[in-house]
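#struct-pred

JT: dropping the chains for the assembly here, can someone run the whole complex?
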Amino acid sequence: MKRYWNEYQKEIADDHFFYERSCIRQTFFAGSETTFLRILREELDKDICDNPHQHTCTGIGYHSDVVPFETTMTVVARLFSLMTECGYKNFVPSCVTSFGVFTEMMAKWEENPALKEQARQYLWEACKREFEVPENIVHSSDIIFKFREELKPKMRYQLVNRFTGRPLRVVEHIGCHYAKIFPHHGVGKAEFPYVLAGMIESWGGEVVDYPERRHCCGFGFRQYLVQENRGYSIANTKKKFESMEPYEPDFILTNCPGCAMFLDKWQYTIAEMEHKTYDQAGYGIPVLTYEELTGLLLGYDPWEMGMQLHQVQVDRLLDKIGVAYKPEEKYLGVGGKLLPTPLKPEILKQ
Amino acid sequence: MKKVAVIGAGPAGIEAASLLAAQGLEVALFEKESQPLHNLTDKAFLFPNFADARQVSERLLEKLHTPGIALLKDTPVVSLLAPTAGGSWQVNGQGFDAVLLTSGYTTFDARRKEELGYGIYPGIHTSLEMEQMLREGKIVNTIGDMPRRIAFLQCVGSRDEKVGNHYCSKLCCVTAVKQAIEVKKLIPQCEVYIFYMDLRMWGQHFEELYREAQTDYNIKFIRGRISEAGGTFDRRVQIKAEDTLMGRPMKLTVDLFVLMVGMEASQGTRSLAAQAGIAGEYGFAQACDPHTSDNCTAHDGLFVAGSCKRPMTLTDTLADARSAAWEVLRYLHSGLK
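RK: done, full complex below.
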């Protein structure tokens, strides 16, 4: 199928990155960020700084109207100051919400330099720090996208169903703040972002194009964060699942913490509420981050990447790809200690 | 004998060329395509009276038989140079006493509105493709069946800040109404929707046609933009819109989705207007004054007519061409040349 903007590529730096972690990813998709660092350092031989002094970007609070603009601006300035102090110029947020916040602040500063001076003043008054604006800012999925062909020969597996020999059908879901705010900051721009589709196609899979492809995952900040609004959140997610269901996707790939979380966990809730699952066998559709997918294909241990923490379990997907894994090690903790096995839901099979 | 170059054998070019030739001038009519009237022969019926476009074309083509016209087909104009010190205008290296630019328009490339899915999903067509189906008298959905529901979307590539075309294309509103009626004549049971921003029924009989579409053909008009279109599992098209009168979002699955593509300056217009130093807004050619001198340009001996200036209906184009021919004659007889 023809995509007008497929050829649009943004500038993605080659090396020397300053990594900015997500607040929530380490809880829900616990090994993704560590996997990203491992891929960059061990597979691609890149220099990436993982600074222990980093903190929230305030994105969730900012988009929920509980953190004022000036605070967010100053917090962003502090994160940039960490990058500056470490001697880096290429800023790489792990979270799509953060990516949106950073690019928004940079755009505001460019359009209104007085705001940037205000940020400098606030930051200095608050913690006597100074910052430079990054020369290059990309989301971490952009980097995997950029090096997808370089990674391919190192991969042990492909996105092929080993039982049927057919490409795996993959739903890709891009976080709204990746390209919907500033289309030029997204590979492939806003309507058909190519960042995840490019990985899927390069690694042997088939991208599922379904009518609600661009629809929000259901997070939507206030849709979920205000408890009374959560019906909107799950209704959004349900709409997406109903739209993708006829295509029988093998899994969902996301580049945003909120999307991965909601597309994964709401499947359990929908199953409990409506006795409905969106795969024919009743196990749900696994949701992977792009780091987990890259790591899996490179042969990394799924349990070391924390994939057992998913709501929809990935074992059947691992079998389809042919990933070698040890079921008995699924719930082993540090030092080989067996952790408690989670209870199994009644409707959503595991 | 005075020589005039007319660039573009569309309706404006043919109309002006025939009038100028009838006045005893030698007219070279340049046409880049192998046949004239490229943008008219692809139509089925013309608003507002459903005139057969082929018959109208034939009447215009007859005018090419006026003695004194040399039709130069397959001859794109690659150079248009202003006269130097009492010389003549140079068109592809040949000298002329006057030049009339009638290089016309092209339609907006709907693929630029990627969210509308044209060129990506089956079942999504431009208004030109719908015209082709109407010409053949056969409208089918993506699996070859008779469509049960069709939606038209106005203002694709016009009145659109995102694509850089702020202007109104002027004739898409009535074209959609006309096409919708033709669809209903062919398939009375088909549900037809037209999504619009506001309907600009400015011409004679346009408003009547709009009323007729509602009262006689039950065509549904929804005020609102369509934000995106996507293919469904059964090869139909799902569209998302906001009904701004009702103030609520809506989702609709249709068999065919028709994009009413606006008019843009043709490549020839852009290039020649730039070469001659008369490039106006959006790549169209710029006349001296929209009220009193709409066919003259900043250069003596160079004139413009038709949709190379702005979106224009066929009726207006022909009237404009006659006006331009008069301006050319006045210039040539005025002693300025």
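JT: nice. The interface with chain A takes residues 111-112, 114-115, 119-121, 228, 230-233, 238 of chain B (CB under 8 Å). Chain B has two domains: 3-104+266-333, 110-262.
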